[in-house]
Write a structure and sequence with these properties.
The complex is a heterodimer of chains A (about 375) and B (about 675). Chain A is elongated, with a radius of gyration of 30 Å. In chain A, about 15% of the residues lie in helices and about 35% in strands. In chain A, strand 7 and strand 8 form a beta hairpin. With about 375 residues, chain A is mostly beta strands. Chain A has 6 helices and 26 strands. Chain A folds into 2 domains: about 170 residues, no CATH class; about 150 residues, no CATH class. In chain A, the strands form 8 sheets. Chain A has a 5-stranded antiparallel beta sheet with strand order 1-26-25-24-6, with no helix packed on it. Chain A has a 5-stranded antiparallel beta sheet with strand order 15-14-13-12-20. A 4-stranded antiparallel beta sheet of chain A has the order 3-2-4-5. Chain B is mainly beta and about 675 residues long. Chain B has 6 helices and 36 strands. The longest helix of chain B is centred in the first third of the chain and has 10 residues. Chain B is globular, with a radius of gyration of 25 Å. The chains are: A mainly beta (about 375), B mainly beta (about 675). Chains A and B meet through helix 3, strand 23 and strand 25 of A and helix 6 of B.
């Protein structure tokens, strides 16, 4: 052993003894403080050209590798992201599991002034500056009156009748109009009369006006179609209506809406759109016409559609400086799943390079 | 030399029709030599003898207005609206047509258009300019596609003496960025003339610091920019291509080369929720090579014949965009054009042809997404124009036919007349023009996939676009006289009065239109190029010019009404514009002072704005030049004296503010000539 190595050995032994001596002086061990306000992500939802779902399990704080088909029956994920849309698992396929729901605590409401975004507040807010808002939310924010929202699937043609829960009588909602877009024809219609027969309808009267191709308003002349549901349902499982020909048609023809039959004598209290058609509800009778070119702006929906709870309680503002970017309000949401309640604060829609569709957020169990 | 007062005789690059020139000189006052212009007929004409109304800015005025690029000089021209584009460059509007419909030429040949069909005025070196000629109204007959609103033809200098110059100018913006308070413009040029050949080398370097209204925000309002031009040229007017020794067979040969390098950088935003700063970057390298052959006049009795052949090649390479979305662009332009002029005392025939090629390739290197897949187009044009000349009137009629590789044949015609009234002391001139214009869709409009989907929007080209077409009419009445001839209060002065009315009807206008269907499908804001509509543009320009020996003043007012077929105003066009200038020249001290004011109001704006902060603005500018001796001169200028500019909160408020993105800019410069 040379002199240098000998010296190093002595030094190491000396240091080891010193360390042992220090240990003997420790009287208590403190638990490490849990890290507060950790930001998870960014979790990608693919590129704009090819958006994909990111299914997030808030119990394990991880993204689950699922196909859309698998996700439809999977109850492990709680929140899913795709582009700018955020979904809650409504566990449709598993009645034993409660749907994931949210409650918006409405903190940072000062980011809006009379409903208008205060641009500087959005732009100047950072994850650090809004950490205290996240920390401030606790289980005390949950009360018996806290109304959690879920993603809800609904039919666009719902609401054509009124139900009296006292008398259990059903009547036509004569002022509830629907505007359907099917086979390049825009049609405004309502149910003006119906006859209840048990749990179904024995007759139904539909009044409608079509909008001629290229026109911007509906025809003045309303067509009335009186259907004998008892008769029609004795021959078919559904009653198919084509507004272009003003009549009942067969399933093989270009029908626009259908009324499913309840049994051989009555039709169900349901209207349904054909697969490639869309519609809106016009319960205030506001629209005298819908130009075909403007249809994308009116929010037409397919027969069954989902109302996203996050869309009703948006977490971002878009293009505040005219530059097409999304800015978080840093609002805190309470997310309830079958295991508990969590608080969630979105911090960014971008990765560090500025690519969109990459979610970052804080999430903690309450 | 004082601008706008003492007319300069500027021999243009083209040969002069000697007969007509001699006639006009005879009629003219010996002391008042006029500009020669080429843009109206593609042949040299005295300004007063041009059958088409032309505005001219001469070299002396340009030198007072700018030491750098063309932008400042064009802002001075009445009726022109200079607009700043999204890349921080500058485009123009003329008679209600935007930069895509106004053709900017250098020596009657086109430039490439990095931002669509519009040339960037900030990429044109003002130091090489002999004069700027502005032709208002449809001019597709002589210049082809895009000349719907008019033509700005920049005539470059000829160097034929031994000289060298060096100059430096230092500038400061009122809203200067903290760490870059000063901007610099440096010029060096040298020319050498031998018996047969002339040579010139010119260097220009601009180091512009940019400006920022609010240093507390991430975004800056104007880019810091470094720009360099290198210009080389050589020419001879005595090359004998033929064995015959006759001077009539001597040929002018000219070769010009320009290299441009431009770098811009401007922080624009921060990634929301991240700490990354997004910066707009632009790196441009451009090479331009011109070659031309021209004959001297071939005289055959009263008949004169000459011809010319010009070629131009431009390659433009650009890396630009937001720092997280950079794109590489490669643009090429190649053109060969020729013309033959046959003239007598009463008739001048110009005939010629053009072969033109454009290509455009654009790709985003990070994602590999192709925005324009190396697309190209070609066109072959033939044109003929006759000019019937009479002492009291002229008639100019022309026809052009173009075959485009993608759009087939297209033609345009124009007829112009000029009538002279009155006498030498009270000269009236009435010019009228009826013309057609057209513009074939650019490669960008047809093939572009502008993918800013990471920011939520895209702009997509449409391959099936149709060419735009226009019919337009112009009428201009001019009056020239001498005033105060017998006044004891004032010296004799020259009074000039012009009134111009114009009307254009266009169809198949190409604009970007929001595509609701594609937007809904992709959840993006998708816009596509479409032939959308007809437009009607009409207006009135009024100008009065009073010139004394040392003082000169000019007031111009332009009214414009531009509407689409739904009677909605076309955005970006002001109803009213007033440009006025006052110049003073002190012969004893060789001092030039130029004050010019610009006022614009009632600009049409997009309905998406939620409020209007300002829709009228006033801009004042002053420039002073003085020759201390034969070698040394100094200059001082203040642009935007009252620091009128767009409100700093306009973008965040989604508010319309018509004022330009500008900042008071004070410059001081020195020039030394060897």
């Amino acid at each position: 052993m040379n002199k240098k190595l000998t010296l190093i050995t002595y030094l190491l032994v000396g240091l080891g003894l010193t360390a042992c001596g220090s240990d003997s002086e420790v009287t208590s061990i403190t638990e490490p403080e849990p890290e507060v306000g950790v930001i998870y992500g960014p979790f990608t939802t693919g590129t704009v050209q090819e958006r994909v779902f990111a299914y997030y399990d808030i119990d394990t704080l991880s993204v689950l590798e699922l196909t859309e088909e698998q996700a439809a029956t999977n109850s492990d994920w709680d929140i899913a992201f795709k582009g700018t849309s955020v979904y809650l698992n409504n566990n449709d396929s598993d009645d034993s599991k409660e749907a994931v729901s949210l409650y918006f605590t409405d903190n940072n409401s000062d980011f809006f002034d009379n409903g208008s975004a205060v641009v500087n507040k959005f732009i100047n807010a950072t994850a650090d500056s809004e950490l205290d808002d996240f920390i401030a939310v606790s289980s005390a924010n949950i009360s018996e009156n806290t109304e959690f929202s879920t993603d809800v699937t609904a039919g666009i043609l719902e609401g054509f009748y009124n139900y009296n829960s006292t008398t259990h009588q059903v009547t036509a909602a004569v002022d509830h109009y629907f505007i359907a877009y099917s086979d390049t024809t825009v049609t405004k219609f309502r149910v003006s009369e119906l006859t209840q027969s048990g749990y179904g309808m024995s007759s139904i009267t539909i009044n409608f006006v079509n909008q001629l191709s290229g026109a911007t308003e509906f025809d003045a002349l309303e067509t009335e179609l009186v259907l004998d549901a008892t008769l029609e349902c004795s021959n078919s499982d559904n009653i198919y209506i084509d507004f272009d020909v003003n009549n009942i048609v067969t399933s093989a023809e270009a029908w626009d809406i259908k009324i499913p039959c309840l049994d051989d004598t009555a039709a169900d209290f349901t209207l349904a759109l054909t697969e490639d058609a869309t519609a809106i509800q016009d319960f205030t009778n506001s629209y005298a016409g819908v130009p075909e070119s403007d249809i994308p702006y009116y929010g037409f929906k397919s027969d069954q559609y989902t109302v996203l709870a996050f869309k009703e309680n948006p977490w971002y503002q878009y293009s505040l400086e005219g530059n097409h970017k999304l800015w978080s309000q840093y609002g805190v949401y309470l997310i309830k799943n079958t295991t508990g309640v969590y608080k969630l604060q979105f911090t960014s829609y971008y990765d560090t390079d500025g690519n969109s569709g990459n979610y970052s957020f804080r999430i903690e169990a309450l | 030399m004082q601008p706008f007062i003492k007319y300069s005789l500027s021999l243009s690059c083209l040969c002069l029709s000697l007969t007509s020139f001699a006639e006009i000189l005879e009629q003219d006052d010996d002391n008042n030599l006029e500009h020669i212009v080429v843009s109206g007929t593609r042949t040299p004409k005295l300004l007063s003898n041009s059958p088409v109304s032309i505005q001219v800015i001469d070299q002396e005025t340009i030198e007072i207005l700018t030491q750098g690029t063309l932008t400042n000089a064009l802002n001075f021209i009445p009726g022109l609206v200079v607009t700043r584009n999204v890349k921080g460059g500058y485009n123009i509007q003329m008679q209600g047509f935007d930069g895509d419909h106004v053709l900017v030429l250098i020596n009657s040949q086109p430039l490439i258009s990095p931002a669509g069909s519009a040339a960037d005025l900030d990429q044109i070196n003002a130091n090489e300019i002999q004069q700027i000629e502005v032709l208002r109204g449809a001019a597709s007959v002589m210049y082809g596609s895009s000349a719907m609103g008019g033509v700005i033809n920049i005539i470059t200098k000829d160097y034929d003496e031994n000289q060298a110059k060096v100059s430096i100018q230092v500038g400061h913006y009122a809203d200067a960025i903290d760490n870059a308070p000063l901007s610099y413009t440096t010029r060096v040029s040298a020319s050498l003339s031998t018996d047969d050949w002339d040579y010139n080398l010119s260097l220009l370097h601009i180091d512009d610091a940019g400006f920022d209204y609010d240093s507390s925000t991430i975004s800056q309002d104007a880019s810091g920019m470094k720009k360099s031009f290198i210009n080389l040229s050589t020419k001879t007017d005595s090359l004998n291509l033929f064995s015959n020794d006759s001077s009539n067979n001597k040929v002018n040969v000219e070769v010009k080369y320009q290299y441009l390098k431009e770098d811009k950088s401007r922080p624009t935003s921060i990634v929301p929720g991240q700490n990354t700063i997004i910066t707009y970057l632009s790196e441009v390298e451009q090479n331009q090579l011109d070659f031309s052959l021209k004959t001297n006049n071939e005289q055959h009795g009263n008949q004169q014949n000459n011809w010319q052949l010009n070629t131009r090649y431009i390659n433009h390479q650009e890396t630009s965009g937001q720092s997280n979305s950079i794109r590489n662009t490669d643009i090429n332009l190649a053109e060969i054009n020729g013309q033959y002029v046959s003239s007598s005392n009463k008739l001048e025939i110009v005939s010629g042809g053009v072969i033109h090629y454009d290509s455009l390739d654009q790709i985003k290197p990070v994602t590999g997404s192709i925005e324009i897949n190396d697309e190209s187009r070609q066109n072959v044009d033939a044109f003929i124009q006759g000019n019937w000349i009479n002492p009291n009137y002229q008639i100019l009629a022309g026809l052009r036919s173009q075959h485009d590789s993608d759009f087939g044949f297209h033609s345009a015609a124009r007829v112009s007349t000029m009538n002279n009234f009155g006498d030498k002391e009270n000269r009236w001139q009435w010019r009228n023009g009826l013309g057609q214009g057209y513009r074939v869709p650019s490669l960008k409009e047809r093939f572009y996939i502008f993918d800013h989907s990471n920011l939520g929007y895209m702009v997509i080209g449409s391959a099936d676009l149709k060419p735009e077409e226009s019919n337009s009419a112009n009428t201009t009445l001019s009056y020239n006289t001498e005033v105060f001839k017998s006044s004891t209060l004032f010296n004799q002065a020259q009074l000039k009065f012009d009134v111009n009315a114009h009307y254009s009807k266009t169809k198949n206008f190409i604009e970007t239109v929001h595509d609701a269907e594609k937007s809904a499908e992709t959840q993006l804001d998708i816009s596509v190029y479409q032939n959308v509509a007809q437009a009607t543009i009409q207006g009135l320009d009024f100008s009065i010019d009073l010139s004394f020996n040392e003082w000169s003043g000019q007031i111009n007012y332009s009214y414009l009404d531009a509407r689409n077929e739904d009677d909605q105003r076309l955005t970006g066009r002001p109803y009213h514009q007033v440009k006025t200038n006052l110049t003073y020249h002190n012969y004893e001290h060789e001092l030039d002072v130029l004050l010019y004011l610009v006022y614009q109001s009632d600009e049409a704006y997009d309905s998406s704005y939620t409020q209007v902060l300002n829709n009228h603005w006033f801009n004042a500018n002053i420039s002073i030049n003085q020759n201390i001796n034969d070698q040394l001169s100094w200059n001082f200028a203040v642009n935007n004296i009252f620091n009128e500019h767009k409100d700093v909160d306009a973008n965040s408020l989604n508010a319309f503010d018509s004022r330009p993105v500008s900042s008071r800019y004070v410059t001081l410069g020195l020039k030394y000539q060897f």
